[in-house]
């Protein structure tokens, strides 16, 4: 008995847990040990990112390959089995399972969430595979012949990863597939799946179709599937990268022109289906021709009650219809939930970040002075084209739509270029998307970035490009190059809305928001371009640079929950939108200052290019609204002084949803502690020129310029290292003058040990420290005056007996100076 009580967890499992499972009929193929559920949350740090430990279940019981039905959490013999209940519950919830077990080999605790009365109870033995499978099907309300066949049908593993391993669906993708198939078995005709951008909606769609194709679903034949969207790239990418490799060209077809029959999986743009000289193309297919219709990005045009695209879905009403989106919407004229119903499964951005499948982010909110103060015209003022500008104060709602201030774009461009330079790693700047108000604004931003980055453009001619619907095939060619993780150019892609949805861009490290965003779906889609991980280049996080306060939507409770609220639109006599105000359930109107602009409607030409139709915004002066709107004119001015008004730093809070404003002191405090160095070790590394340079680079990547800290903290006479030690650990501040005084009293023997010519060099080094701080204590300083007046660097090194001894002397001086007390 003593030996049993001393068993480890692994020994307990081999001696008792596995035999108990086998006694209930579970085979070794059905018992999956050390089941890795996720990857572990990524957290941005100065060393790029740190990764938490993944969630690993002791055992997952699978009725069929990749079809889990229960979790088993094991504890060693002498530990109470109830100590594993919370772990088992957590793992089961992740895997979408209603059954979990905690055991120590002598006691089995069952956690059962199925049925009307969930329970935690002791059981004598594990249920058999068939018993648990029946309970699993009953819980999903899919206990029928077709349900059993569909849910245990094998997943398709044809697709390969870059290392040629099989591309297997992740745990949440399997949950989404199972929930969808169960809904189909129950006879549900409209099904909604909500999965955050970057989490693989296309993979989910592929596996659903693969399972349906391998079962008896579909009138005794292989089911016919229609995959719909409103952009060419949202159709071509899943067709070419996912479905063609799995099903082959004989079964996959893109509808264009004439109706084609005899295929299994059809892809189509709404626009193509609506064409036809005598009869629209979609009507040339019988309403019951397709068994399944998949609607990608279903929050877009098809969600509108009066959308012409809705007619396509209504024509194929007999088919089961699955809507895929990251951002369901709920407006008075467009309600995703009203059409498709509540989601059968939701996987949010916060979930993806928590699991380590999506990149966490940092936010930098930058405001320009004209955005804060507004731009006021004077009576009779003309724009640069001679147009008289209506008198008034113009603000952010008007910029680039009614009022164009050329310097505003130039100031933002310079900030972006400076930021990319300061955050470059090994000489490579992070790929960046800049979102502008419209194509014209994007063209001016491209020119401003080109001019600001003359240094980069000399070596990389295509450093910055514009990619919009107006750029046609040339823009598409640059998009193909931009999306490559191993390409050095373009570095910056400037767009308006073309890149805000449906495109995989894993290598993007920076999202720049220079267009107003008024809806949560558009916001989520836009920042979704940065959420994908890219291990090939070490990308584990991304940055958002926000010039327009778009990230205020981070603080919306609906960020990962309910869709948008209802809004009330007010139009003028010409039908132009004047304002949008959110309505409470009782019909009352909320504070107009908090109003978000409604999402743009999308139209698309045959070639798949995208246009946006959105009313111009009004100036802040309400007396000028009608006049400017009726003219539909944009005024262009220059000669305006534009500069950075302020900059705030935000961090993702622990809930994974909201952003927390931090002071510069708090920001530096957190970053210094992330270095994981004790105060004496930090001071020691700072004292040596080489390791100080490394530390300064790490801090710079975390948006901390060490040499600027004295000015930022209002302590210009204190050395950066003392400020770092003070803000991180509260160590007392010592001025540079005081440090020098202490050093001269405590280490005079050190200085006197050098020959007079060498001592002269060190004395000048001390003066450099007194004037400019410890970053000057390095051999490179010898290349400036007054050292150049004493001779070349080689000659100065010879005063010490060579370069190596010179470096040692400077580092020794630095150590003694910074440790003086």
From TrEMBL:
Pfam families in the cross-refs: EcoEI_R_C, Helicase_C, ResIII
Residue ranges of coiled coil: none
Record's keyword terms, sorted: ATP-binding, Helicase, Hydrolase, Nucleotide-binding
The keyword Protein transport is annotated on this UniProt entry: no
Keyword Hydrolase applies: yes
GO MF assignments: helicase activity
CDD domains: DEXHc_RE_I_III_res (cd18032), SF2_C_EcoAI-like (cd18799)
Residue ranges annotated for the Helicase ATP-binding domain, each copy included: 182-346
Gene3D superfamilies (UniProt xref): 3.90.1570.30, P-loop containing nucleotide triphosphate hydrolases (3.40.50.300)
PROSITE patterns attached to this UniProt entry: HELICASE_ATP_BIND_1 (PS51192)
Top-level taxon of the source organism: Bacteria
Chain positions covered by the region annotation Disordered: 578-624
PANTHER family assigned to the protein according to its UniProt record, in alphabetical order: ATP-DEPENDENT HELICASE IRC3-RELATED, TYPE I RESTRICTION ENZYME ECOKI R PROTEIN
Name of the protein this chain belongs to: DEAD/DEAH box helicase family protein
């Amino acid at each position: 008995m003593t030996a049993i009580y001393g068993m480890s967890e692994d020994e307990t499992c081999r001696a008792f847990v596995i035999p108990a499972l086998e006694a209930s009929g579970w085979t070794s193929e059905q018992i999956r040990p050390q089941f890795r559920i996720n990857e572990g949350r990524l957290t941005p740090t100065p060393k790029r990112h740190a990764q938490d430990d993944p969630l690993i279940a002791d055992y997952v019981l699978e009725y069929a390959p990749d079809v889990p039905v229960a979790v088993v959490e094991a504890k060693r013999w002498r530990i109470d089995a109830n100590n594993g209940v919370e772990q088992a519950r957590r793992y089961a919830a992740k895997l979408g399972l209603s059954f979990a077990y905690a055991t120590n080999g002598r006691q089995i605790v069952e956690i059962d969430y199925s049925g009307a009365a969930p329970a935690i109870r002791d059981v004598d033995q594990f249920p058999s595979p068939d018993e648990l499978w029946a309970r699993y099907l009953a819980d999903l309300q899919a206990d029928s012949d077709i349900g059993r066949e569909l849910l245990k049908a094998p997943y398709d593993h044809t697709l390969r990863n870059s290392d040629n391993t099989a591309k297997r669906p992740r745990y949440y993708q399997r949950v989404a597939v199972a929930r969808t198939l169960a809904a189909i078995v129950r006879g549900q005709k409209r099904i909604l799946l909500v999965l955050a951008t970057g989490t693989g909606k296309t993979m989910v769609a592929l596996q659903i179709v693969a399972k349906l194709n391998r079962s008896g679903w579909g009138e005794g034949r292989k089911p016919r599937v229609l995959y719909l969207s409103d952009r060419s790239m949202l159709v071509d990418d899943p067709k070419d990268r996912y479905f063609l490799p799995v099903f082959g060209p004989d079964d996959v077809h893109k509808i264009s022109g004439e109706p084609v029959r005899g295929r299994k999986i059809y892809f189509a743009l709404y626009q193509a289906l609506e064409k036809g000289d005598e009869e629209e193309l979609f009507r040339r297919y019988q309403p019951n021709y397709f068994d399944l219709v998949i609607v990608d990005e279903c929050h877009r045009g098809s969600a509108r009650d009066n959308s012409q695209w809705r007619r396509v879905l209504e024509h194929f009403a007999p088919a089961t219809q699955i809507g895929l989106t990251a951002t369901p919407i709920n407006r008075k004229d467009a309600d995703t939930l009203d059409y498709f119903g509540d989601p059968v499964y939701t996987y949010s951005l916060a979930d993806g970040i928590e699991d380590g499948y999506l990149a966490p982010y940092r936010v930098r909110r930058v405001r320009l002075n004209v955005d804060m103060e507004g731009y006021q015209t004077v009576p009779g003022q003309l724009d640069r084209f001679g147009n008289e500008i209506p008198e008034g104060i113009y603000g952010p709602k008007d910029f680039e739509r009614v009022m164009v201030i050329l310097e505003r774009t130039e100031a933002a461009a310079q900030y972006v270029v400076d930021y990319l330079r300061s955050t470059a790693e090994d000489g490579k700047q992070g790929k960046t998307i800049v979102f502008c108000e419209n194509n014209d604004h994007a063209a001016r931003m491209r020119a401003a970035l080109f001019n600001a980055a003359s240094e980069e453009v000399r070596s990389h001619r295509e450093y910055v490009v514009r990619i919009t619907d107006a750029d046609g095939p040339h823009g598409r060619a640059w998009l193909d190059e931009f999306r490559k993780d191993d390409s050095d150019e373009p570095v910056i892609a400037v767009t308006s809305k073309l890149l805000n949805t449906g495109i995989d861009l894993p290598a993007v490290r920076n999202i720049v928001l220079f267009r107003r965003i008024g809806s949560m779906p558009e916001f989520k889609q836009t920042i979704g371009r940065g959420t994908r991980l890219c291990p090939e280049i070490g990308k584990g996080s991304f940055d958002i640079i926000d010039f327009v306060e778009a990230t205020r939507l981070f603080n919306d409770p609906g960020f990962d929950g309910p869709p948008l609220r209802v809004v009330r639109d007010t139009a003028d006599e010409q039908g132009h939108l004047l304002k949008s105000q959110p309505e409470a359930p009782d019909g009352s109107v909320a504070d107009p200052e908090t109003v978000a602009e409604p999402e743009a409607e999308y139209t698309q030409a045959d070639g798949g290019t995208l246009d946006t139709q959105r009313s111009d915004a009004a100036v802040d002066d309400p007396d000028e609204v009608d006049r400017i709107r009726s003219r539909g004119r944009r005024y262009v001015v220059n000669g305006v002084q534009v500069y950075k008004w302020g900059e705030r730093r935000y961090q993702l809070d622990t809930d994974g949803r909201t952003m927390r404003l931090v002071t510069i002191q708090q920001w530096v405090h957190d970053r210094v502690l992330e270095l994981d160095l004790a105060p004496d070790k930090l001071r020691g590394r700072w004292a040596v020129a080489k390791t100080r340079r490394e530390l300064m680079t790490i801090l710079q990547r975390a948006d901390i310029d060490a040499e600027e800290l004295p000015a930022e903290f209002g302590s210009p006479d204190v050395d950066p290292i003392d400020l770092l030690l003070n803000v991180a650990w509260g160590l007392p501040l010592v001025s540079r003058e005081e440090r020098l005084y202490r050093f001269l009293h405590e280490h005079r023997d050190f200085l006197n040990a050098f020959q007079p010519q060498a001592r002269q060099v060190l004395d000048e080094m001390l003066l450099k420290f007194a004037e400019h701080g410890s970053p000057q204590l390095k051999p490179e300083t010898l290349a400036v005056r007054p050292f150049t007046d004493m001779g070349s660097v080689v000659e100065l090194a010879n005063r010490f007996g060579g370069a190596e001894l010179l470096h040692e002397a400077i580092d020794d001086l630095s150590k003694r100076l910074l440790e003086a007390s």
